[in-house]
């Protein structure tokens, strides 16, 4: 280490042999910033009601022994989510013990169940959310100039959308998507909302601060639960924007 000349020569040799190109994600470019800004300013509709508004009739009573009936206002959403848009929501029943992050990322496989209203087919949903190569307009231009590298294929997948958890955490919304809840319970587990096979119950989240995309594993040593997951797609290289 005392030979400064040798150190300099070694450093130069290392620098000349390293050939690595820099990569800046599209989201962090001026174009990516303006793309998000344009979407937020022109696409949000803060006056529109969520699609499930007309489904909500009244809150669910919680019956307790020796006490008057109380009402659980999780059935009445306290906030209306205007972004991401309600049309981007895909409710998925994951396989046992899987996190919603994994469930959404692998939505294209048969391992998980995409929940649909009775008048919509899974084929039409999946084909509308596959980032088609539109041969005209902005999306086609974007597909050429803002395509992520091949080794970043995860940028094309679905992702868990925590903003949509309040919509999933609702018995009438699940009923709209064909899920019947013979029994209903509430918990503060980060896995909720989920389906419990052992008791044939829909288990909903009591505290909205406990919503968690990454929670997985077992509950009390059992893996008989399957999470109800809010998934959405995204433009390649622009995670915060939906493909439509």
UniProtKB/TrEMBL annotation:
One of its GO terms (molecular function) is alpha-1,6-mannosylglycoprotein 6-beta-N-acetylglucosaminyltransferase activity. It is a single-pass type II membrane protein. It catalyses: N(4)-{beta-D-GlcNAc-(1->2)-[beta-D-GlcNAc-(1->4)]-alpha-D-Man-(1->3)-[beta-D-GlcNAc-(1->2)-alpha-D-Man-(1->6)]-beta-D-Man-(1->4)-beta-D-GlcNAc-(1->4)-beta-D-GlcNAc}-L-asparaginyl-[protein] + UDP-N-acetyl-alpha-D-glucosamine = N(4)-{beta-D-GlcNAc-(1->2)-[beta-D-GlcNAc-(1->4)]-alpha-D-Man-(1->3)-[beta-D-GlcNAc-(1->2)-[beta-D-GlcNAc-(1->6)]-alpha-D-Man-(1->6)]-beta-D-Man-(1->4)-beta-D-GlcNAc-(1->4)-beta-D-GlcNAc}-L-asparaginyl-[protein] + UDP + H(+). One of its GO terms (cellular component) is Golgi membrane. Pathway: Protein modification; protein glycosylation. GO terms for biological process: protein N-linked glycosylation. Pfam families: Glyco_transf_18. This is alpha-1,6-mannosyl-glycoprotein 6-beta-N-acetylglucosaminyltransferase. It comes from Schistosoma mattheei. The lineage of its organism: Eukaryota, Metazoa, Spiralia, Lophotrochozoa, Platyhelminthes.
